[in-house]
Amino acid sequence: MKKFFLSVLVILVCSAVFGITFWVSWEGEKFYRDAAAAFKEETGIDVEIVYFPKIEEKLNINLKTGYLPDAAMIKDTYVGDVAASGRSLSLNLASLTGYSQKFLNAYVWNGEITAVPFYADCQVAFVNLNAFEEAGIVLGEKLDFDQFEAIKESLTGVVDYPIAFDFTSPYVMFPYVSALMSEEELYELNIGASGSREIVSKIKEYFDNGVISRLERAAMNKLFAQGKIGIMLQGSSMASKFREKGPDFVMLPFPNIEGVEVSGIIDSKGFALFNSDTSEQCMSFIGFLNEHSHDFFVEYDKYPLFGSDSPQELEWVVNQGKFMPNLPGYQSLLFEALEPALQAIYSGAMTVDQALSGAQSYIDSIR
What we know:
Layout (H helix, E strand, L loop, with lengths): L1 H17 L1 E5 L4 H15 L3 E5 L3 H11 L5 E5 L3 H6 L16 H5 L2 E2 L2 E2 L1 E14 H7 L12 H8 L5 E4 L5 H8 L5 H5 L6 H15 L8 H9 L3 E7 L3 H6 L4 E4 L13 E8 L5 H13 L2 H7 L2 E2 L10 H6 L9 H18 L4 H15 L1
Parallel strand pairs: 1-2, 1-3, 7-8
Antiparallel strand pairs: 3-10, 4-5, 6-8, 6-9, 6-10, 6-11
Helix pairs in contact: 16-17
């Protein structure tokens, strides 16, 4: 008991000298500020919350200069960049009880845990239940592209766009581009592989035949909220906005493609620590956030990455999902190479083989 109180005393004394600063981003700025105030009232530890709308741009600079907070929110895809900088702390597995190995693995770089997992969004198929009910369509647990022609026919006249997503979005298309990749091809970012060309060619046919409509993200979100789309592929972070104004809907895993299993991307966030002198205080505040995050997760439809009694509507989707490799620069290079290739394919300026081969040549020239 004396040892426990001594540890608490040490933390409080250090906090009085240092305080701690957390850089946060994405949704929930008020949640973090309110939690910091409650944490200070309970423990006496002062937590400064600094919000950045585009936190990776800030970190890209500050990882070089060394001017960093005690902790910062990062995406799992940014783990390699943070760890490779040599600025972040390696975390002790013993301090991370209650986290599944799958979620911890997304934050491991070179065998070391680089950040504390917090929550996840994920790629989903938003299904307009009002439209499906009006059309008399029975909905299963998982969709497949080979159902889309019949669904399109049934929803024609019920909604303006029976099925829609953005073919030119590397974020949406990556699960399909990578569906037939081996693990080695995935980590090498081999988007020119024969399996990738095969899947992209199949999907393009659905657009060419008018089964699927291409809409850009902003327009698509607006139209779904108005009840004018039957099925939309998008990130689950939009769910809270659709609940405020939109049709009744359900979120399902990304559709398979003609029997080929597809795993949507899990887009998770966690906290990287940068100051060994305040790491205990930071871990204490992260634990406090975990304990007080129920309403935040409900409000913004987040999936908790630690043991929690929060509603887990997305559990079925997350269990079928996968994390993108967290190698340094992986996601940014993927998007730089794949987006123009998909644009060229959709416009007809290039064949699938030409565009993906060209994108692969660009990747190989950079890596």
